[in-house]
């Protein structure tokens, strides 16, 4: 009789990446590029407004962005693997995260695959990072952020790190993406970390 090995197999890290229609599409794109380079398996969900924002803000086409992911799921496919808690994942990042999506996650109103998968991350106590893009913030936004944070999510506004003395917007984006992925214990190596005051060159 053959011996069946039931020992857990070593697998790649697996992260869900969701992109909404908020401004800052390049953050999601750069996150996908970094995760691909780090050999992390990615599952991408993109809203229709994310696709519009990608075309408006960047030189990428949505099809190029989808090609960066290992798996792409339709936002209306509520039967996708990532919609179930039995699907193993290391976490999810919503980048950028609109206030509409934040509100849906806060209320548990799972009317699309992004909000449903985020709900799964919270109930399964997995890492959920929301890269919230809005300013200024209303009381409603702040209340939603507080309640979602209390439920276990991490609110990550992509605030520029001026101490890196960025030479370009790309430098600021790389620093933000690097700090986002730090939350998953992934080091992109793409940005300068704070080492204390440095002598003038």
From TrEMBL:
<dbReference type="InterPro" id="IPR036551">
    <property type="entry name" value="Flavin_trans-like"/>
</dbReference>
<keyword id="KW-0285">Flavoprotein</keyword>
<feature type="binding site">
    <location>
        <position position="163"/>
    </location>
    <ligand>
        <name>dimethylallyl phosphate</name>
    </ligand>
</feature>
<protein>
    <recommendedName>
        <fullName>Flavin prenyltransferase PAD1, mitochondrial</fullName>
        <ecNumber>2.5.1.129</ecNumber>
    </recommendedName>
</protein>
<dbReference type="InterPro" id="IPR003382">
    <property type="entry name" value="Flavoprotein"/>
</dbReference>
<keyword id="KW-1133">Transmembrane helix</keyword>
<keyword id="KW-0637">Prenyltransferase</keyword>
<feature type="binding site">
    <location>
        <position position="47"/>
    </location>
    <ligand>
        <name>FMN</name>
    </ligand>
</feature>
<feature type="binding site">
    <location>
        <position position="133"/>
    </location>
    <ligand>
        <name>FMN</name>
    </ligand>
</feature>
<feature type="binding site">
    <location>
        <begin position="98"/>
        <end position="101"/>
    </location>
    <ligand>
        <name>FMN</name>
    </ligand>
</feature>
<keyword id="KW-0288">FMN</keyword>
<comment type="similarity">
    <text>Belongs to the UbiX/PAD1 family.</text>
</comment>
<keyword id="KW-0496">Mitochondrion</keyword>
<feature type="transmembrane region" description="Helical">
    <location>
        <begin position="15"/>
        <end position="35"/>
    </location>
</feature>
<feature type="domain" description="Flavoprotein">
    <location>
        <begin position="14"/>
        <end position="182"/>
    </location>
</feature>
<keyword id="KW-0472">Membrane</keyword>
<comment type="subunit">
    <text>Oligomer.</text>
</comment>
<keyword id="KW-0808">Transferase</keyword>
<feature type="binding site">
    <location>
        <begin position="21"/>
        <end position="23"/>
    </location>
    <ligand>
        <name>FMN</name>
    </ligand>
</feature>
<dbReference type="GO" id="GO:0005739">
    <property type="term" value="C:mitochondrion"/>
</dbReference>
<dbReference type="InterPro" id="IPR004507">
    <property type="entry name" value="UbiX-like"/>
</dbReference>
<comment type="function">
    <text>Flavin prenyltransferase that catalyzes the synthesis of the prenylated FMN cofactor (prenyl-FMN) for the ferulic acid decarboxylase FDC1. The prenyltransferase is metal-independent and links a dimethylallyl moiety from dimethylallyl monophosphate (DMAP) to the flavin N5 and C6 atoms of FMN.</text>
</comment>
<feature type="binding site">
    <location>
        <position position="179"/>
    </location>
    <ligand>
        <name>dimethylallyl phosphate</name>
    </ligand>
</feature>
<dbReference type="GO" id="GO:0016831">
    <property type="term" value="F:carboxy-lyase activity"/>
</dbReference>
<dbReference type="Pfam" id="PF02441">
    <property type="entry name" value="Flavoprotein"/>
</dbReference>
<keyword id="KW-0812">Transmembrane</keyword>
<dbReference type="GO" id="GO:0106141">
    <property type="term" value="F:flavin prenyltransferase activity"/>
</dbReference>
